[in-house]
Amino acid sequence: MPAVEIRDIRKTFRDFLGRRRVHALDGLSFSVAAGEVYGLLGPNGSGKTTTFKIALGLLRPDAGSVSVLGHAPGTLAARRATGYLPEDSALLPFLTARESLRLHGALAGLSRAESRRKTDELLEKVGLKQAADRRVLGFSKGMQRRLGIAGVLIGDPQVFILDEPTSGLDPLGAVEMKHLIADLRKQGKAVLISSHLLGELENVCDRVAFLNQGRLISAGTLEELLREKETHELRVSPADPDAIMALEALAKERGLKVVRSKAPMRSLEAFYLSVLGKDQAK
Ligand SMILES: Nc1ncnc2c1ncn2[C@@H]1O[C@H](COP(=O)(O)OP(=O)(O)O)[C@@H](O)[C@H]1O
Ligand SMILES: [Mg+2]
Predict the structure, then answer these.
(1) pLDDT mean across residues, the chain
(2) How far is the CA of 281 from the centre of ligand 2 (A)?
(3) Which atom, in ligand 1's list, is nearest to the CA of 44?
(4) CB 13 near ligand 1, within 6 Å
(5) How does pLDDT run across 37-71, given as a tens digit for each residue?
(6) At 145, phi and psi to the nearest 5?
(7) pLDDT surpasses 80 at 151
(8) Among residues 194, 222, 106, 87, which one has the least CA distance to residue 145?
(9) Is 4-226 CATH 3.90.550.10?
(10) Which atom of ligand 1 lies closest to the CA of 43?
(11) Nearest-5° angle of CA 204, CA 160, CA 75?
(12) Which ranges of 43-197 does DSSP label H, i.e. alpha helix?
C-alpha cells in the first residue's frame, strides 16, 4: 500500500458567482511509498499547494480519490499519520520558539516530559538553540522555516507533506533541510515536497513530477530523467596535461568525439559551504 496515493484528482476554483475561474488540477495522479522522497516541481500557480491541501483533507477535490496510509484525507487516522509544513509557516508570534514547540508537542499528544525533551532535542537539531527563548515575532523567514519543520518533526508522523520547505532559507539552511529530509527517508518515512526552484529538489528526491497548469507533464526517478546516456564523463587526478592529451588522443583514435575536456567547476553552493567551513558537515 502506498503511503500517499493520488488518483486522477481535479479541482476547479470558482468565483463568488459560481463561475469557473481556474482549473487548478486537471487529472493528476501519483503515489509516494514509505521510505521515498517525492518532489512536485512546477512554476507558481501550477497546483502544488492545492494538491497538498487535498491530500490533507483541507480542500475537497471535484473528482478523483486520495488516500493516506489507506485512510481518507481529513480522517483522524490520516491526520495523526501526517505532518504538514504549510507554504507560509503558521506560527504564533507571541510565543517563544521553545513555547511554540512544546505546544506542538502537546497537540501531537506527547506527555509534558516527552514534549520538553523533544523540544530541546529539536531546537538543537534545527539550529535554533540560541534563539530558543526569543519570541517568534522577530524571527527571519529562515528561522520561521526551521521552527516550522521542528514543529512537524515533534509529532513523529509517518507521512511528511512539506510545501516549499527550503523557501526563505540561506544556502546552508537549505543544505541542512536536505540532510533532514534524507534522514526521514532513512527512517522509512514518506516525504512529499514541493518547490518552484528546480535546483532545490536535486539530490533530495527519489522521484520527481513536473506540474504545469494542474497537469503532470513528466515524472520519474532523477536517474531516468537526468542521466545523459549518450555521453560519458571521466574525472582523473592529478590534472597532468601530458597524460590528459594522451587520453584525448586515444579517445579520438577510438572514434570518440571529445565533447569536453577541462577542469570541472565547483558549484557556487559547494564553494559557499567550503568558505563557511561546512563542507565536511555530516
Ligand atoms: N482558494 C482559491 N481560490 C481561487 N483560486 C485559487 C485558490 N487557491 C489556488 N487557486 C488557484 O489555483 C491555481 C493553483 O494554485 P496553487 O496550488 O497554489 O499553485 P502552486 O502551489 O503550484 O503555486 C492558481 O491559479 C491559483 O491562483
Ligand atoms: Mg504553492
Answers:
(1) 90
(2) 30
(3) 23
(4) yes
(5) 999 998 899 999 999 999 999 999 999 999 999 99
(6) -65, -45
(7) yes
(8) 87
(9) no
(10) 22
(11) 155
(12) 48-56, 76-81, 97-107, 112-125, 141-153, 171-186
Residue owning grid cell 564553494? 271
- At 254, the amino acid letter reads R
Q: Is the peptide bond before 238 cis (omega within 30 degrees of 0)?
A: yes
Q: Residue 185 and residue 191: Cα distance in Å, rounded? A: 7
User: Residue 208: what pLDDT?
Assistant: 92
Domain ranges across the chain? 4-226, 232-282
Higher pLDDT, 85 or 274: 85
Q: What is the separation, in whole angstroms, between the first and last Cα of the chain?
A: 33
Residue of minimum CA distance from atom 26 in ligand 1:
45
- Residue 228, pLDDT score: 87
Cα–Cα distance between 282 and 238 in angstroms, integer? 26
Q: Return the C-alpha cell found at 150.
A: 521542528
Give residue-wise pLDDT tens across range 187-226.
999 999 998 877 777 788 999 999 999 999 989 988 888 8
- Are 38 and 206 contacting, i.e. CB atoms less than 8 angstroms apart? yes
**Residue for grid cell 518547490:** 195
